[in-house]
Amino acid sequence: MERMTTRLRHLLAENDYLMAPCAFDALSARAIEAAGFQVAGTTGYGMHGVMLGAPDTGLLALNETVSALSKMQNAVQIPILADGEGGYGNAINVIRMVREYEKTGVGGFFIEDQEQPPNCPFIQKTTLITREEMIGKIQAAVAARQDPDLVIVARTDAPFEEAIDRANAYLEAGADMVKIIPKTHEELLKLPGRVHGPIHLGLYAGKGINDGMTAKDCGELGYKIITFPMSCLFAETAALLSILRYIHEKGTDEGYQGDSMAFDDYLKFIGVDRIREAGQKFLKGPRYKK
Fold this sequence. Notes:
α2 packs parallel to α4 and α5 (about 90-105) runs parallel beside α6 (about 130-145). This protein has two domains: about 5-235, TIM Barrel, CATH 3.20.20.60; about 260-290, no CATH class. By secondary structure, the protein is an alpha/beta fold. The protein has an eight-stranded parallel barrel, surrounded by eight helices. The chain is built from twelve helices and eight strands. β5, α7 (about 160-170) and β6 (about 175-180) form a beta-alpha-beta unit.
């Protein structure tokens, strides 16, 4: 079977741009695949919320993330581009991170140039490591990967001009792609013409940076992978609160008018047919006879 790393490489070569909504667990990854997307991202913001009930403040440990990524990639047949935070330490830690991430089967990952522990830039201002230290991390990641198709993305949170200089230096150091966080709409428009390689872009609704723009618009500007880091997380959280408030008020879930699934529809979505087929084929012995 084709490795997810190789599939991601093929998709990048065959498409002008790719859309990748971000998953935070196996269920959301399966939903992204079922909706027809060819690639899924992941969101450290969402994984912190789902696994710890906490904001994205770098609290998740490497082993926790690896365990989650293994389950997510095992649940789908599309490549996952994972959040590698800041590599969980210095360049030596990055070596271990790459080896552990490769075991999960993901198609690739990105690492960022924040000081450790990292945090979401929408929560508090980020502090960056030096460009030289980040280059060392990228070179360590490239040297550590056993699968040459594993896609390595280097993210920078630096201000516009510095971000461009860093991004180009990170590409020269061996990164396959860079991820830049534009601070304004004007920066979003200008970045592709200044960066000497493919760019990963996250779209955030209501921030005034990409308002009114579609993934196609961004692809035409020159962005290669366009992710939606918060969409699934916020929609799922809103849906959970909606049904739970209804139950709390009514004492029942009957009559709820919000989006939901029928019992059998959920079973089909989650793969019950595959489990039943496997059971019919492999479950032997008298206790399995009907």
